[in-house]
From TrEMBL:
UniProt xrefs under NCBIfam families: PRK03202.1 (NF002872)
Protein name: ATP-dependent 6-phosphofructokinase
Reaction equation(s) it catalyzes: beta-D-fructose 6-phosphate + ATP = beta-D-fructose 1,6-bisphosphate + ADP + H(+)
Catalytic residue list: D148 (proton acceptor)
Sites where the protein binds ATP: G15, K93, G94, G122, D123, G124, S125
Keywords recorded for this protein, A-Z: ATP-binding, Cytoplasm, Glycolysis, Kinase, Magnesium, Metal-binding, Nucleotide-binding, Transferase
Obligatory cofactor(s): Mg(2+)
Organism: Laspinema palackyanum D2a
Keyword Protein transport: no
Annotated localization: Cytoplasm
Length: 405
């Protein structure tokens, strides 16, 4: 069965992460072999506005198989899979809720005469683009990317593994300065309201304490006491330093999320140790004098050369997106499930995302009783008290729909 020539668009939206260019590369290379045309939409949905207003012409957005050429003897060198960021640019914020802006986006899409759109994004940006797709009757394929790994239905999102590697390397380096100066090193990592990044990197990086929203949603007095217990027990075993990883989604005692949660944690460790020492708990005396340093890894976690796994995942996702378009299976999310690339209906994915966001909970949290948490506990890592953990419902992911092969 032959399929007619198609004209598809591709864009990246939301925060950048390693592997985006590898998805773009795979879509362009796979489509080129089918004789299709691929148009790169710059800066997310803003690119459609540029087309609608005449700022950009469609012919200027057409992508060739090599992505771009390098002058000299290496002309045509295919390097996209090695580059971080997005050669198309991305958009973290937009005004699509404004009717006039949404109308311009819909008009730009119409002018491009696309048969389908590959949208690479996290749960928030995919939600926004899906809403536009419904209004404009677009044929959309979603590709999950986020260092938070919190897109439902997929076990892995593009960019997550590289971010884990980046944080792991940082923890490795922090360990030696902590040991040299007998310090408590606190590393604050990203993840939004999910603890996947902190948990995976913390285990790989040799952390003594890992604090994630699912197990330590609030740094209350009980949590601080248990953290101090862990650090004190290390010192009693003649281990004079400690490595603490805290996810940005962990909240202050006032149950609100603030910036600089790492600094707050360091301060509380010192204050609570003083309190315990004054209550004739000698094992805590001196903890308040330990040099506690905080490192906020910040946007370094979004950069770095994509890992081999992220390159493979991104490539497989891009090829799957093209296959879905070829066979007319639209409005699907490409996912990684059981070591294979599958797809799920976007309407179910977005429905779950919207429900969770409305209830202010993560759409794909860490399972408090899952394998990774059990692994951390078996190693003696403090990951929080079970009584602290937020409610986890395995039905956060509905019954798996029939996948399109």
């Amino acid at each position: 069965m032959t399929h007619p020539k198609k004209r598809i668009g591709i864009l990246t939206s939301g925060g950048d992460c390693p592997g985006l260019n590898a998805v773009i590369r795979a879509v362009v290379k796979c489509s080129s072999r089918k004789g299709w045309e691929v148009y790169g939409i710059p800066y997310g949905t803003d690119g459609f506005i540029d087309v609608a207003t005449g700022t950009r012409q469609p012919e200027d957005m057409k992508l060739n198989e090599h992505g771009y050429d390098i002058p000299g003897l290496l002309q045509g060198l295919d390097v996209l899979q090695f580059l971080s960021g997005s050669v198309l640019g991305s958009l973290s914020k937009g005004n699509t809720e404004k009717p006039e802006v949404a109308q311009q986006i819909l008009e730009g899409y119409k002018r491009l005469e696309l048969d389908g759109l590959v949208a690479i994004g996290g749960d928030g940006s995919l939600d926004i683009i899906y809403d536009l797709a419904v209004k404009g009757n677009w044929n959309m394929i979603g590709v999950p990317k986020t260092i938070d790994n919190d897109v439902p239905f997929t076990e892995r999102s593009v960019g997550f593994q590289t971010a884990v590697d980046t944080v792991t390397e940082a923890l490795y380096n922090l360990t030696f300065t902590a040991a040299s100066h007998e310090r408590v090193m606190v590393a604050e990592v990203m993840g939004r309201d999910a603890g996947h990044l902190a948990l995976h990197a913390g285990i790989a990086g040799g952390a003594d304490v890992i604090l994630i929203p699912e197990l330590t949603p609030v740094l209350d007095e009980k949590a601080i006491a248990q953290i101090c217990d862990k650090i004190a027990s290390l010192r009693q075993d003649k281990r004079k330093f400690a490595l603490v990883v805290v996810a940005e989604g962990v909240k202050h005692e006032d149950r609100r999320q603030h910036r600089n949660i790492g600094d707050y944690l360091a301060q509380q460790i010192k204050l609570y140790s003083q309190k315990l020492c004054s209550l004739d708990r000698p094992e805590f005396c001196g903890l308040d004098e330990i040099d506690t340093r905080v490192t906020v890894l910040g946007h370094l976690q979004r950069s770095g050369t994509p890992s081999s796994f992220d390159r493979i995942l991104a490539t497989a996702f891009g090829i799957k997106a093209v296959e879905l378009i070829e066979h007319g299976h639209y409005n699907r999310l490409v996912v990684w499930e059981g070591g294979k690339v599958e797809s799920k209906p976007l309407d179910l994915v977005i429905q779950l995302v919207r429900q969770c966001h409305q209830e202010k909970r993560c759409a794909s949290p860490v399972d408090p009783n899952g394998f990774m948490v059990q692994t951390a506990r078996a190693l003696g890592i403090y990951v929080g008290d079970a009584s602290h953990s937020v409610e986890y419902n395995g039905s956060n992911v509905p019954a798996t729909p029939t996948a399109v092969s």
